[in-house]
Amino acid sequence: MRWIWNVETDESHEIRLELDYLGREKVFVDGVLASRNRRMWTQHNQHLFAVGAGHRARLDVHGSWAGRVTCRLLVNGRVVPPLGGGPKEGWLRLAKEMPAWGWVFAAACLAIPVVSLGGAISAFLGVMGAGISISIAADRDRSEAMRILLATATTMVCWGAFLGAAFWLSGAPDAAPRSEFSAAYAGLVDSIVTVEVTGGDGVVSRRSGVIVAHETVVTILPEGVGSSRLLVRHKLEERQAHVRYFDPERLLAQIEVPGLGGTPATLGATGALIAGQRLLFCYAGTSDGAVSQTSVDVRSLQQTEGAQLMSFRGGTSDRETSGGGLFDEARTLVGIYRKDIPPPDTGLPVEWIALLSGYPVDR
């Protein structure tokens, strides 16, 4: 914003106000810095400075919540009108002049509450990160390379804080089974297998599976694998298998494995489950068929089709664990684990296994 003040002696001076989106103000008289200050939101700033020889000036700057400012310049007590109307600061100017990369970083931060489907912590981190990124991008006093570096660091810090908070709130997977599950785990190992989907290039996908009947395994399979070649690993044995039933919406499959040994799991029910209940999660999904376990806490339950669909955090980070078994304290199978991205992960109720007969697969 500019003013021209003319003295009666044909002397003329230019007063110019420069401000940015961080609230920093600089006043120049004939190109020389005469005053600087910083204004926060609706704060009122007053600049006192000299114009020419023996002339005193005062510039009042008022902010608004809309991001605009109003100014009044007095020299020797007289109001000097601005040139070209009022100041051009505001959110509209910010939208027009902000570097494109600034909006990219702001969007990356705002993606945090989108990915997490809301939440106070993620919303706070997203909005805070977006605001800081925009402020950095608008700071013309720094080089563009430095601003990009700072915006990158801000985005990484916000995402790191979000992932750390999500991990902490979900609870890290237990390194060893709790005492109430220790004895149960030993007897359940014989019911867990590894299921491999193979193709011309070798193993296309690897999942866990649970033996639910003689030579019968239930697992989670990717879409479009009905005619693919399957290999089931159980301890030291390998068996060819084929898909008998497959629900394409839930990705739940029942496969037949001729000659498979192992002990079928005892099927339970989800009707008595409650939120917060701890379940034992057994899975394989490795090339050697080794079985692992951890415990997971039921986060929420959804009543559907006469059963309870489970959701939880605290499982594993590997997609190969999909198809593993969820067992209660009575050592009965209550669900099939499905690794979902993004979380929370899902426990498909054991009652849905009986519904698979409605989804036959042609061989």
Main structural class: alpha+beta
Tell me the series of helices and strands, N- to C-terminal.
EEEEEEEEHHHHHEEEEEEEEEEEEE
Binned, the helix content reads 10-25%
Specify the CATH class of the largest domain: Mainly Beta
The count of domains is 3
Distance between the termini: 78 Å
CATH architectural label of the largest domain = Beta Barrel
Count helical runs: 5
How many whole angstroms does the radius of gyration measure? 33 Å
* Average pLDDT level: 81
Report the portion of residues in β strands. Answer: 35-45%
If you had to describe this structure to a student in words, what would you say it looks like?
- By secondary structure, this protein is α+β, with helices and mostly antiparallel strands.
- The chain has three domains: 2-92, Lipocalin (Beta Barrel), CATH 2.40.128; 98-170, no CATH class; 179-358, Thrombin, subunit H.
- It has five helices and 21 strands.
- It has helices at 91-97, 100-115, 120-138, 144-170, 179-188; strands at 2-6, 12-19, 24-29, 32-38, 44-51, 55-63, 69-75, 78-80, 192-199, 202-213, 216-220, 229-234, 237-247, 252-256, 266-267, 278-283, 292-304, 307-313, 325-327, 332-338, 345-349.
- The strands form four sheets. It has a six-stranded antiparallel barrel. It has a six-stranded antiparallel beta barrel with strand order 16-17-18-21-20-19.
- Strand 9 and strand 10 form a beta hairpin.
- Helix 3 packs antiparallel against helix 4 (144-170).
- The radius of gyration is 33 Å and the shape is rod-shaped.
- The chain starts with a strand and ends in a 14-residue tail after the last strand.
